[in-house]
């Protein structure tokens, strides 16, 4: 299989991410169908040309015709879906996903999946604070990172196809990591930052702070508007790595606190300079 | 005194903030002069119409003619300046500042200041990551907060004039706090967030993270490009409040960590929902 304009693409789960995939692919002339729980999301997507057609049921025709299936569901829902409906895939179907944690999900899905269907896991490092198909936006992929996380069960062909999908979607940088490396990385870069944002918003009950704030507090708490159902699941599925990264952060935070408490200005300045220099690498191109 | 187009305004320190004040005021037809250390910054500002004229010396004519003087210097430099040159002010001059910490600076300046000159402290909650007059931008004040921090040494007239200045500059919300209230607030909203950003950038030495990051890590570390000379001074001048706020954050962070460690999903979700609801108040209009 090679992804081209004749590839039948099926997106399962038309939320923010599924909708953004659909938009990006349809805009470039790819054929996209969708299965999702709410009819209004299908109507919305069909009206805007994001998909050709959609179904609120696991439509046998859609599933058996699909060459490439993208799962944009919560991790547990994804695993359950595979369990229940995988008999409907035609032989040779390639499936991928957008799940934010990998080790556990990939192991569960790959271990139960039919041997004539391949699951190549991926994580698009893009998103919006708001959820739902109506906030879909193909431009979220611009300048963003895309991580493919294959295991030894994956073929080179599937890895290449998955990278190609990332490239079609418009990601700026496409990388490959093992599921375990991915989860450790994501525990630090994404899950820890969400824990910090949530903590900042709940650390004090002082009223009226919005009258005095500058942009730095706004920046650090933007992501505290969190989908609690999804993120609590993601945190718990990656608990060990997340706790490790939270502890590493706390240790470094205590060290910096000590410099302040001791009035060690030179040490403080060294840490600040190191931080500023490192941050340059993270600027978007 | 009442600020109008005939008011002689003198800005001392043409960096990012002094330059942005100069730009905002000149654009609206106010008469602005400046004293700063580098001739090139004066040339830059005069060429662009940000100031009428400038001097690298504490010019006696500028100082004695000024009705309103805005200090945009580092805290310690501001205090030293007053000590050395306050004899040059004419009687009745109103002075204000942009200093990011208040209690100590306000007490030092007000206690030594001539009785015929009034210092009304203020903190514009706006800025840019980059420093220097060439990054000046009057639009930083749009949507931003401005805090006046008077003491019992200040007159109602000066407080009103200082609020009026904030309004002329284009701030969206102007508030009044005591220097102590201000410093506690700023320890939480601004200094703590900078400590977190710096810590995130230095918590791990793993290379190549920029290839895998999403926007959440970028958001939380934007301000880690910090002016280490200025911020180390600000942190140490507000040490007690900052340490208190760092400890409050750490305590809340540990609580959230415990929920994750124990798999207390409902408690995690409650904290997340509280965070998201509170964050709505901080959206810019």
Question: Could you give a short description of this structure?
Answer:
The structure is a homodimer of 285-residue chains. Chain A is an alpha/beta fold and 285 residues long. In chain A, 49% of the residues lie in helices and 12% in strands.
What does this structure look like?
- Chain A has 285 residues and is an alpha/beta fold.
- Chain A has 2 domains: 8-177, NAD(P)-binding Rossmann-like Domain (Rossmann fold, 3-Layer(aba) Sandwich); 182-282, Orthogonal Bundle (6-phosphogluconate dehydrogenase C-terminal fold).
- Helix content of chain A is 49%, strand content 12%.
- Chain A has 11 helices and 9 strands.
- In chain A, strands 3-2-1-4-5-6 form a 6-stranded parallel sheet.
- In chain A, helix 4 (75-85) packs parallel to helix 5.
- Chain A is elongated and about 70 Å long.
- Chain A starts with 7 loop residues before the first strand and ends in a 6-residue tail after the last helix.
- Chains A and B meet through helix 7, helix 8, helix 9, helix 10 and helix 11 of A and helix 7, helix 8, helix 9, helix 10 and helix 11 of B.
Architecture per CATH nomenclature, i.e. the level-2 architecture of the largest domain in chain A? 3-Layer(aba) Sandwich
Strands of the largest sheet of chain A, in order across it? 3-2-1-4-5-6
Low-pLDDT segments, ≥5 res of chain A: none
Query: Gyration radius of chain A, to the nearest Å?
Result: 21 Å
Feature tags:
homodimer; 285 residues; Rossmann fold; 6-phosphogluconate dehydrogenase C-terminal fold; three-stranded mixed β-sheet; 11 helices; 9 strands; 49% helix
């Amino acid at each position: 299989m090679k992804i081209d304009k004749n590839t039948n693409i099926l997106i399962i789960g038309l939320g923010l991410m599924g909708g953004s995939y659909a938009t990006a692919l349809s805009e470039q002339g790819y054929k996209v169908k969708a299965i999702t729980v709410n009819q209004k999301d299908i109507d919305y997507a069909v009206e805007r040309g994001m998909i050709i057609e959609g179904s609120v049921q696991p439509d046998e025709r859609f599933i058996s015709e699909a060459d490439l299936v993208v799962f944009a569901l919560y991790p547990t829902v994804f695993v359950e879906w595979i369990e229940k409906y995988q008999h409907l895939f035609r032989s040779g179907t390639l499936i991928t996903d957008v799940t934010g944690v990998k080790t556990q999900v990939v192991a569960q899905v790959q271990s139960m999946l039919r041997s004539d269907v391949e699951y190549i896991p991926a994580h698009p490092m893009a998103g919006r604070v708001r959820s739902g198909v109506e906030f879909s936006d193909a431009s979220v992929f611009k300048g963003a990172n895309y991580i493919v996380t294959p295991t030894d069960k994956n073929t080179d062909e599937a890895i290449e196809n998955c990278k190609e999908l990332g490239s079609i979607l418009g990601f700026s940088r496409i990388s490959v990591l093992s599921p375990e490396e991915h989860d450790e990385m994501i525990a630090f870069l994404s899950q820890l930052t969400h824990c910090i944002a949530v903590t900042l918003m709940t650390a004090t009950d002082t009223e009226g702070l919005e009258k005095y704030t500058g942009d730095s507090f706004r920046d650090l708490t933007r992501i505290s508007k969190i989908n609690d159902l999804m993120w609590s699941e993601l945190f718990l599925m990656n608990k060990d790595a997340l706790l490790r990264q939270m502890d590493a952060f706390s240790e470094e935070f205590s060290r910096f606190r000590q410099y302040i408490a001791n009035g060690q200005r030179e040490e403080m300045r060294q840490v600040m300079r190191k931080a500023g220099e490192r941050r340059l690498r993270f600027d978007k191109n």
